[in-house]
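[[Encoded backbone]]
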Amino acid sequence: AAPLVEKLFTRIRVCESAAKESSAFNEELQQIKTALESIDDSTSLFVVDEFGKGTQDEDGIALLVGLVEYLVEESTFAATTTIIATHLSEIVGLLETETREAVNWLQMDVLTDTEAASSPTFLFRTVPGCSNRSLGIHCARLAGVDAEVLQRAESIREMLAAGIDPADLAWSATSEAEEMAAVATIKEAFE
């Protein structure tokens, strides 16, 4: 049976508004601060969704690693149930070994056909483990995003995966075909 929860703390959603004198990221940080100051017993549930998304990836990853390590190492939170949802899979490799082993990692189950890896099937259940890949472009395709946008996104993803900064090619490439030819040339040079 699930434990009884007397206190619920969340870092789930921040509504942006030009009328507020605070950014969405600052609101997110205030939610984390309030939860960390208020959790005091084992009857608390702390739900964190996409913490660190409101800033550059490096800062977001660093903040999330710091939060996870703090929650695992501080005795105040030892019995608190915490659920963290994130797309920042890089955190797993950055956590101290003891911290990584203390966390129960779950990922969404996805069925991929090796022949047609371009069309994964989302199974809408969790399984043990931590995903090391993103299916954002596939999700965009399922959401009906224009094919031209998806094609460009795949091109940029391939460049980034090859360690190529797309901005370095922008000055010389006048078409996508020329850009992809430049990417192929650079890839060959590094092989």
The CA atoms of residues 19 and 100 lie 41 Å apart. The beta strands are 7-11, 44-49, 81-85, 106-111, 121-128. The two ends are 55 Å apart (CA to CA). The longest strand covers residues 121-128.
